Amino acid sequence: MINIGEYNTLVILREAEQGVYLSNDDGDEVLLPNRYVPETFKIYDALDVFVYLDNQERPVAVTDKPYITKGEFSLLRCNQVTDIGAFLDWGLVKELFCPFQQQAFKMKVGGWYLVYCYLDEKSGRLVASSKTNQFLDNKALSVNQFDEVNIIISHPSDLGMNVIVNKQHSGLIFKDDIYKDLSIGDKLKGIVKKIRPGNKLDISLGQVGYRNIEPNATLILEHLNDNSGFLNLTDKSSPEAIKDLLQMSKKNFKKAVGTLYKQRLISIKADGIYLL
């Protein structure tokens, strides 16, 4: 079976006027149009191609790499809005359709939206949805406390920033744990800070508790080395000054400095920190 919305490894079966036909091991065929055919090739050469439906709703293979594939989340730009929905730029000739009923907010031309790509069972077409929460499930978690996870910044809330965890679960970074600018669609590493009742995931951008001391201490050492062994920060510096320079909280800064001081790697003076 040739999978729509995914990359497939297929072999060149035969030439035709409009391109070459590719086949899988089961004998299923799909056209690779002339514009994507390699300059030199041999019959039975293997190609990695992406397969989707063209403007005539026929399966077609392309060598272009889309910005999103089936089952993925990505930030896409709206190119046009019609009376049936919005069309998004996903890096292919035919734009990705997002129907009105799958828009969390009405899309506008030129706007950027975090969407999920899925195969519509009725039409057999790939479509996008900005109602991303419906594709997340926290009933059975695949993560544990202190696990490192992949996160995608989803949308802000009064409590902080909602995130997508490992493409499966919803999570939240509380305001107090945000120490750098975050934008919707950013893809980052995070840590499961806590699992609250109802399988609600609290996510941190850094390690949690004692796990946070070593990487923060390393970061401070890197800044010292980059600045001739001096850092104009002390325990009296404002949280904003620490956040701007190091992207960490004052509490974590003081912990890391204490660790470096105990290890006799730094000296602390009235004007700042010195590397020994």
Summarize the structure.
By secondary structure, the chain is mainly β.
What's the overall average pLDDT, rounded? 92
Helical content band = 10-25%
Order of helices and strands: EEEEEEEEEEEEEEEHEHHEE
Looking across the biggest beta sheet, what order are the strands in? 3-2-1-4-5
Ends apart, CA distance between termini = 64 Å
> From the coordinates shown, what is the CATH architecture of the largest domain?
Orthogonal Bundle
Structural class: mainly beta
Blueprint (SSEs and pairs):
Elements (H helix, E strand, L loop, with lengths): L6 E10 L2 E5 L5 E5 L12 E8 L5 E4 L10 E9 L3 E5 L6 E4 L12 E8 L6 E4 L18 E9 L3 E6 L3 E6 L12 E10 L3 E5 L8 H14 L3 E2 L7 H8 L3 H13 L3 E4 L2 E4 L1
Helix pairs in contact: 1-3
What are the defining features of this structure?
single chain; 276 residues; mainly beta; OB fold (Dihydrolipoamide Acetyltransferase, E2P); 4 domains; 5-stranded antiparallel β-sheet; 13% helix; 39% strand
Describe the structure.
- The chain has helices at 213-226, 239-246, 250-262, and strands at residues 7-16, 19-23, 29-33, 46-53, 59-62, 73-81, 85-89, 96-99, 112-119, 126-129, 148-156, 160-165, 169-174, 187-196, 200-204, 230-231, 266-269, 272-275.
- With 276 residues, it is mostly beta strands.
- It has four domains: 7-62, OB fold (Dihydrolipoamide Acetyltransferase, E2P); 73-133, Beta Barrel (OB fold (Dihydrolipoamide Acetyltransferase, E2P)), CATH 2.40.50; 148-206, Nucleic acid-binding proteins (OB fold (Dihydrolipoamide Acetyltransferase, E2P)), CATH 2.40.50; 210-275, Arc Repressor Mutant, subunit A, CATH 1.10.10.10.
- The chain has a five-stranded antiparallel β-sheet, with no helix packed on it. A five-stranded antiparallel β-sheet has the order 8-7-6-9-10, with no helix packed on it.
